[in-house]
Design a protein that fits this description.
This protein is α/β, with parallel strands linked by helices. It has 15 helices and eleven strands. The strands form two sheets. It has a seven-stranded parallel β-sheet with strand order 4-3-2-1-5-6-7, with helices on both faces. A four-stranded mixed β-sheet has the order 9-8-10-11, covered by helices on one side. Strand 2, helix 2 and strand 3 form a beta-alpha-beta unit. Helix 6 packs parallel to helix 10 and helix 13 packs across helix 15.
């Protein structure tokens, strides 16, 4: 069987390093033809390139360009966002987009235009550019979700026809502050927000999980990926993170995908879809007693999902505003310029203030994001 060629965007991040773990564990199944990373971890990208021998290494920042180039003679080294886009459109069978933030939109569009299958872990590119991404899809199944929840939904949806689907149910761990009231969240620290009980993720995603903004983005992503109306997508808190999501069918049956909390399972399926790799992750141990619990979402303490629903209802550009405002607020929280509760409070004010005008284009999305960042910064500064 011919090895599937892979271009990996965000190779030094959490998704990227775990993807390389999966590829390393399945010799002969994949051929890494391009690696793209931010460029701040020169030693790591050099080590990856030496091990996997890509033809192209793209780094977003030119800070370590000479170091990387000297260490990798014979490898094409390119710098900047255009370099990342080149890695995305290099013609690989599969492009895994593990980048963080809406900067991943252009590479997603480039990969789709090139005809590659996109294993998508960069939910922000769908949230910000849903209409553009949808228009760029050339065939059924060209986007394969890599978020654990959407991978679970894609697997469960194999159990019925689209007309038989009643609801999608996304599970949420509840993040670092599950069970706390709004009043109890007023003084939480960055260090506390970074202590996720189940998952080992990057800092932005971990903080987004603590605010439940991550789940809000996932609801928008599920709406766009599976073409299910927002009112037919629910969220339930499942602290154990064993059931990753569920599909309820019209006859009353519900199919759930369950596995230990290990992103390599969804990554492996994204790389090999529609087939499954062998021994990607240890399965659940059914010989041990265990309990799974499910709880309703506390929308008073965690209103992010309600704000996301309002954004989708407002216009096709409002989700981009939601996401960009969040990115600005998370950075302000990390810097000590915004309290934890101020993250979603500020997002809500920014979303409510935005007045969409005109068609959805790449320029319009980027203008909406710039407006949202500026508006969020103004609100943040005004709190001081």
């Amino acid at each position: 069987m011919t090895a599937r060629t892979v271009s990996l965007l965000g190779s030094t991040g959490s998704i990227g390093t775990q993807a390389l773990d999966v590829i390393r564990a399945h010799p002969g199944a994949f051929d890494v033809v391009a690696l793209a990373a931010g460029g701040s971890r020169a030693d790591e990208i050099i080590a990856q390139a030496r091990e996997f021998a890509p033809r192209l290494v793209a780094i977003a920042s030119d800070r370590h360009r000479e170091t990387v180039a000297e260490a990798l003679p014979g490898v094409e080294i390119r710098v900047g966002l255009e370099a990342v886009i080149a890695a995305a459109e290099c013609g690989a069978d599969t492009v895994l987009n593990g980048m963080a933030g809406s900067v991943g939109l252009r590479p997603t569009l480039a990969a789709l235009a090139s005809g590659s299958t996109v294993a998508l872990a960069n939910k922000e590119s769908l949230v910000a550019g849903g209409a553009l991404v949808d228009a760029a899809i050339q065939r059924e199944g060209q986007i394969v979700p890599v978020d654990s929840e959407h991978s679970a939904l894609a697997q469960a949806l194999r159990g019925g026809a689209p007309s038989e689907v009643a609801r999608l149910v996304l599970t949420a761990s509840g993040g670092a502050f599950r069970g706390r009231s709004r009043a109890e969240l007023g003084t939480v620290s960055v260090a506390q927000a970074l202590r996720h009980p189940n998952w080992d993720m990057g800092p932005v995603v971990t903080i987004n999980s603590a605010t439940l903004v991550n789940k809000a983005l996932e609801v928008i992503e599920a709406h766009l990926l599976f073409r299910v109306p927002m009112e037919r997508i629910d969220v339930v808190v499942h602290p154990q993170s064993i059931v990753h999501s569920m599909v309820e069918f019209v006859d009353g049956s519900t199919l759930a995908q369950a596995s230990p909390p290990d992103m390599r399972l969804a990554i492996g399926l994204g790389l090999s879809w529609p087939h499954r790799l062998v021994d990607v992750s240890p399965p659940l141990n059914w010989t041990h007693a265990s309990s799974w619990t499910f709880e309703p979402l506390d929308e008073e303490a965690f209103p992010a999902i309600r704000v996301a629903r309002e954004a989708v209802a407002a216009s096709a550009l409002h989700p981009a505003v939601f996401n960009a405002a969040n990115e600005e607020c998370v950075q302000a929280f990390v810097d000590g310029r915004l309290p934890f509760l101020g993250i979603v409070d500020t997002i809500m004010r920014v979303v409510e203030s935005y007045d969409a005008d005109g068609a959805v284009t790449l320029d319009a999305i980027e203008a909406a994001e710039l407006w949202a960042r500026t508006e969020a910064a103004t609100h943040i500064a005004g709190r001081g």
